[in-house]
Design brief:
The protein is an alpha+beta fold and 417 residues long. The chain has helices at 2-22, 35-40, 44-47, 68-76, 121-137, 150-159, 164-175, 179-184, 189-200, 206-216, 221-239, 283-286, 301-310, 333-345, 359-368, 379-382, 405-411; strands at residues 25-26, 32-34, 52-54, 60-63, 86-95, 107-116, 144-149, 244-247, 261-266, 275-279, 294-300, 322-327, 349-352, 373-377, 386-391, 396-401. The structure holds adenosine monophosphate.
């Protein structure tokens, strides 16, 4: 509906502005892709929720459930030779067969940012910081980030030789907060205990939790490096006062391709995330490209709109003046049309009478539509190069030279100030 479309385009425009400010170039990817590409690395959670079908050429295709696979493919082909880091932005609708409820739809919009080529914490921090920027640009006041690190969990599991498939299942269950089921998948008692301990780790601030985590995994080589990486990222984002509410050592996200830090942004009024992302260092390579470390983030535009409504944060745009133009006689229609184009060229919205209504009916219609001014084109005024203008709010009528009409309309307000 019109107001919803307006809100959608407001958030899209702010995403684009964020892309411009951070130097991300926009690409437009296909809505329909091969099932093979979309399902290859997204993970079971997304794979099982895709809209798939056979096209007329008997190919298995699907509606995109996210952007990352398409962008990763671009990085292995058309954009392969581009200098690194490669910063890419896309925005559009995506499709998942989720159970519809407030903030969870089967067709929804995402703005998506990917930065490729850097393994440094600065790249992870950038994804968080630009999300912070988008929150501010949309006027959302009260929001906070939650950060975790897949590398810590995978590091511990790998040290106990847990296979990658089992690791993926464990992460998926942890993402759904089904921790007991996740622990049940581990047959080594010690490994289970260590992971259980990880779930309970907490301190009073996010930074302290990260430090505690680093100590907790000191005997696990890969996990220890991951925990240090998490601390480095937190230090960077803290420098610009990004509101990091929590470091959650047991935080996992639904996509299988994450390898490093992961994060989500939320508002207190909603228990669903407005956006989320993380590092995926193996994806481009798995699509046949060169080894390319990368970080991505996707923002749920529908949920951002929901948050802006709850927090009443979308700034009210100054209403522009609207005009209805009516000719007194049918012979003056062409002249009225010419004047309406003069006004439109000056940026004024003009409704041209196309129902063949007589003056009284046309004025009633203008009233009902709450237009600011009715421009009446009559022969007497036209002879002097003028028209009659009726200010509907003030119930006044005056004569205006056509040459001065755009400025007069723009300069007047409904209240006559
Ligand atoms: P993901 O691609 O799963 O990392 O999700 C990124 C963001 O997309 C989430 O943080 C949500 O804001 C949004 N999102 C995911 N699923 C849905 C859905 N079914 N309806 C609306 N927004 C969604």
């Amino acid at each position: 509906m019109p107001e919803e479309a307006e809100a959608l385009h407001f958030v899209i425009s702010k995403s684009r502005e964020t892309a411009r400010l951070y130097g991300y170039k926009e690409v437009v990817t296909p809505l329909v892709e091969t099932y093979e590409l979309l399902s290859a690395k997204s993970g079971e959670e997304i794979r099982s929720h895709m809209f798939t079908f056979k096209d007329l050429g008997d190919r298995n295709v699907a509606l995109r459930p996210e952007f990352t696979a398409s962008i990763a493919r671009l990085a292995t082909s058309t954009l392969k030779k581009e200098p690194k880091p490669l910063r890419v932005f896309s925005v559009g609708s995506v499709y998942r067969y989720d159970e519809p409820q407030r903030g969870r739809y089967r067709e929804f919009w995402q703005s998506n940012f990917e930065v490729m080529g850097s393994s440094k914490p600065e790249a992870d921090a950038e994804a968080i910081i630009l999300t912070n920027c988008l929150m501010k640009l949309t006027g959302i006041k009260d929001y906070s980030f939650k950060i975790g690190h897949i590398g810590v969990i995978r590091g511990i599991l790998s040290q106990y030789n847990v296979e990658e498939d089992v690791q993926n299942s464990i992460l998926r269950l942890m993402d759904k907060k089904e921790f007991n089921k996740a622990l049940e998948l581990l047959d080594k008692k010690r490994c289970r205990e260590v992971l259980e301990g990880l779930l309970e780790l907490k301190a009073s601030t996010a930074f302290e939790t990260a430090e505690k985590l680093q100590k907790y995994v000191k005997d696990y080589k890969v996990a220890k490096i991951a925990a240090k990486n998490l601390i480095d990222i937190i230090k960077l984002v803290a420098a610009i006062r990004c509101p990091i509410e929590a470091v959650e050592p047991a935080f996992a996200r639904g996509l299988d391709y994450y390898t490093g830090a992961i994060f989500e942004v939320k508002v207190p009024e909603l228990d669903i995330a407005l956006g989320g992302g993380g590092r995926y260092d193996k994806l481009v390579e798995s699509f046949g490209g060169d080894p390319t470390p990368a970080v991505g983030v996707a923002h749920g535009i529908d949920r951002i709109i929901l948050a802006t409504k709850i927090q009443e944060s979308i700034p009210q745009e100054k209403q522009r003046k609207t005009v209805m133009i009516i000719s007194v006689k049918p012979e003056l229609k062409t002249e009225a049309l010419r004047i309406s184009e003069v006004l439109r060229e000056a940026g004024i919205m003009v409704g041209f009478e196309i129902m063949g209504r007589k003056m009284t009916k046309a004025l009633e219609d203008a009233d009902r539509r709450k237009v600011d001014f009715v421009v009446i084109v009559g022969s007497k005024e036209l002879r002097k190069g003028a028209v009659a203008v009726r200010d509907l709010a003030n119930r006044e009528q005056f004569t205006v030279k056509i040459a001065e009409l755009p400025e007069i309309i723009k300069g007047q307000s409904k209240n006559g100030d």
